[in-house]
Amino acid sequence: MKSRIYTPIAKVILLLNNVQYGKNVKVLELLKLYIARRGKVLIGNNLKINSAQNHNIIGRQQKFLLWAEGKLTIKNKVRISASKVICNHKITFGNNVVIGGNTVIVVTNFHSIDPGFSFPN
């Protein structure tokens, strides 16, 4: 099974990026990680990531991408398939979460959420 090849590689990538992770992390295909110096990623037990292109029949065929400049916490029994997570401030995924179908989760301060904000003319 491909996860036997990619999981050890993923664990090395996680360690090189100072990501703390628990037991039973399994990964299909290579991970793309961008962790800033200010970024912190904590992963609990039983994480499964499908990063294989063309292995998810729903939506865009993208690989898993994680970009963190803030604090990202992924708790226990989480499954992620061909998705992107962009964390500029803080994201927490609780226990027993499934993220799939080429989901894109973005939490940044790039744009104002103030309803009175308007762009200059």
SSE blueprint and pairings:
Blueprint: H1 2-16, E1 20-21, E2 26-28, E3 32-35, E4 40-43, E5 48-50, E6 65-68, E7 71-74, E8 79-81, E9 84-87, E10 90-93, E11 98-99, E12 104-107
Parallel strand pairs: 1-4, 2-5, 3-6, 4-7, 5-8, 6-9, 7-10, 8-11, 9-12
Count helical runs: 1
Radius of gyration: 15 Å
Poorly predicted residue ranges = none
First-residue to last-residue Cα separation: 57 Å
Major beta sheet summary: 4 strands, parallel
Share of helix among residues? Answer: 10-25%
Physical arrangement of strands within the biggest beta sheet: 1-4-7-10
Indicate the mean pLDDT.
85
Structure overview:
The chain is mainly beta and 121 residues long. It has one domain (2-107). The protein is 12% helix and 34% strand. The strands form three sheets. Strands 1-4-7-10 form a four-stranded parallel β-sheet, with no helix packed on it. The radius of gyration is 15 Å and the shape is globular. The model has no long low-confidence stretch (mean pLDDT 85).
